[in-house]
Amino acid sequence: MNKIILEIRAGAGGDEAAIFAGDLARMYQKFAAKKGWKFSVVDYNETSLNGYKTFVAKLEGENVYELLKQESGVHRIQRVPKTEKSGRVHTSTATIAILPEVEPKEVNINPNDLEITFSRAGGPGGQNVNKVETAVRIAHKPSGIVISSRAERSQYANREAAMSILRAKLFEIQREKEASSLGANRKEQVGTADRSEKIRTYNFPDDRITDHRFNVKVHNIEKVLDGNLDMILDKINK
């Protein structure tokens, strides 16, 4: 699969969790650039200090799903936050969901099940973004899933991006039901974002990243966060 949806959400840890979510978003964006993949931001809820409460993007490129599918789950960070004045190490989390993008024919969505609203996008992008109602919010009433898209410059493009994400999420739910197995939809991928439900820990005091599922450890966290994710993926996916 060469197209995926990347969803990042800040978990436990307040402002530091949002900062960590921002670090992860930039890591995946830099990694995508190194791989020559297309990286398109769909929606985000930004906080101070370059953090994100939520961040959604679409990635397109060769083997993108195969390389990143193991990223789904709770990522934990241990470091002294920028907001910490007494030098204490804090533990915070962010959740990652990797969803394969699916074709419209693979998921049947009844238009009557959708509640679509439009608003001004706000944020960067110039006068067109701020004055025209280009942002799109789609609520799928049967499932309760709500998708927003505001990064594109046109209402049509944002609607298509939101529908793509909705199809991906509904497809995962559909696949889970058909397979009658755990771990298919986003909720099972990311857990509850509690600090104990982690798949990977970024330990800054020891400059060590540990993937708890595969018992893989690498050092040089800053290099990994700078987009050199191959340092750990090569060991996980071998």
Summarize the structure in short.
The chain has 238 residues and is α+β, with helices and mostly antiparallel strands.
Q: What does this molecule look like?
A:
This protein has 238 residues and is α+β, with helices and mostly antiparallel strands. It folds into two domains: 3-102 and 183-236, Alpha-Beta Plaits; 104-179, Double Stranded RNA Binding Domain, CATH 3.30.160.20. It has helices spanning 14-35, 64-68, 127-131, 155-179, 186-190, 221-225, 230-236; strands spanning 3-10, 38-46, 52-60, 73-79, 90-100, 114-119, 135-140, 145-149, 200-203, 208-211, 216-219. An eight-stranded mixed β-sheet has the order 2-3-1-5-4-9-10-11, with helices on both faces. The protein is globular and about 55 Å long. The two termini are 18 Å apart.
- What fold name stands as the CATH topology of the largest domain? Alpha-Beta Plaits
The biggest beta sheet reads: 8 strands, mixed
Please count the beta strands (DSSP E, at least 2 residues each).
11
Number of domains: 2
Question: What is the element layout, followed by pairings?
Answer:
Elements: E1 3-10, H1 14-35, E2 38-46, E3 52-60, H2 64-68, E4 73-79, E5 90-100, E6 114-119, H3 127-131, E7 135-140, E8 145-149, H4 155-179, H5 186-190, E9 200-203, E10 208-211, E11 216-219, H6 221-225, H7 230-236
Parallel strand pairs: 4-9
Antiparallel strand pairs: 1-3, 1-5, 2-3, 4-5, 6-7, 7-8, 9-10, 10-11
